[in-house]
Amino acid sequence: MKMRPEYESQGEFEPLDSCDERILAVINELHRRDDPMPEDLNERVQFALELEAELDARVARVSRSSELVLTRGDADLIVGQGDPASITFDCETVTVMVTPRPSALRELRLDGWIGPEGTYEVELRSPEGSRRASTDETGRFVLEGLPDGQMFQLVIRPDETLQREGLPAVVVTPAVRL
Question: What CATH number is associated with residue 170?
Answer without folding.
Answer: 2.60.40
